[in-house]
Amino acid sequence: MKKRQVAVKTSSTVIRNVRYGECQKNHAANIGGYAVDGCREFMASAGEGTSGALTCAACGCHRNFHRREVQTEVVCEYSPPHHQN
């Protein structure tokens, strides 16, 4: 009995989308309180690659103060084996 080798092709791709949500900067920390500004989502002040890309146009805070949300999607591709007779 002969054994046949069958080639199976699989590949996967990981796609990550990063979004910055509401601002969490505590504006009353210096007086011992807690108050956020209510900014709901980061919007860059300027285009990518500039210093304004990291400053929010709505609240003026740095992007690091906004809640980071990462969505990860894994896409798998499977190619069934081809049988040769």
UniProtKB/TrEMBL annotation:
Q: Which domain of life is it from?
A: Eukaryota
Q: Which GO terms describe its biological process?
A: regulation of developmental process
Q: What positions does the domain ZF-HD dimerization-type occupy?
A: 20-69
Question: Looking at the keywords, is Metal-binding present?
Answer: yes
Record's GO cellular component terms: nucleus
Q: Which UniProt keywords apply?
A: Metal-binding, Zinc, Zinc-finger
Q: Which GO terms describe its molecular function?
A: DNA-binding transcription factor activity; transcription cis-regulatory region binding; zinc ion binding
The name of this protein is ZF-HD dimerization-type domain-containing protein
Q: State the organism of origin.
A: Arachis hypogaea
